[in-house]
From TrEMBL:
Pfam families given in the database record: Peptidase_M15_3
Biological classification of the source: Bacteria, Pseudomonadati, Pseudomonadota, Alphaproteobacteria, Caulobacterales
Annotated Peptidase M15A C-terminal domain residues: 22-105
Name used for this protein in its record: Peptidase M15A C-terminal domain-containing protein
Natural source organism: Candidatus Phycosocius bacilliformis
Length: 160
């Protein structure tokens, strides 16, 4: 009888406090507005699972960008925090499906968006917002690509 050894590499589980290998829960819930206004920004267990999915997808984004550091500027927003920052009432941030980020070592948001679109990564919404990128991985997975200029949204990616 011959025994086969499974040599498939095992990915280590994220460290405590981490949603994935490179993204922490702290960076996905941190908010100056929440601190200033004393708004609890604590995800429930259902949102935590969705945040883990978002972080796993952000690991893919990080790979697409050549493994440069990706800085999350806004992740989960409780309904009260979302309202305080003027977010859309049906924002994917509330469900833990979205994040806003920058990756200065890769380049400006427009180049980040072009790289993500070219990669074929599945997402719900990708928005180039001038100084940051919004990406969501909500259940609809529409592959919607938008540009925001002057507070208005336009289909596709537009030059600066």
């Amino acid at each position: 009888m011959t025994t086969t050894i499974d040599r498939t590499p095992v990915k280590p589980a994220p460290a405590p406090g981490m949603l994935s290998n490179n993204f922490s829960l702290a960076e996905f819930v941190e908010s100056d507005t929440a601190m200033r206004r004393r708004i609890a920004n604590v995800p429930n267990s259902a949102v935590m699972e969705r945040l883990k999915n978002t972080a796993a997808n952000m690991e893919k984004v990080r790979e697409i960008l050549g493994n440069v550091p990706v800085h999350v500027t806004s992740g989960y927003r409780s309904p009260a925090l979302n309202k305080a920052v003027g977010g859309s009432p049906n924002s994917d941030h509330i469900d833990g499906d979205a994040c806003d980020f920058r990756a200065p070592a890769f380049g400006p948001p427009i180049l980040i968006c072009h790289a993500i679109v070219k990669s074929g990564l599945r997402f719900d919404q990708l928005i180039e917002e001038g100084t940051w990128v919004h990406i969501s991985f909500g259940p609809r997975m529409r592959q919607q690509v938008l540009t925001m200029r002057g507070g208005k949204y336009f289909n596709g990616l537009r030059p600066i």
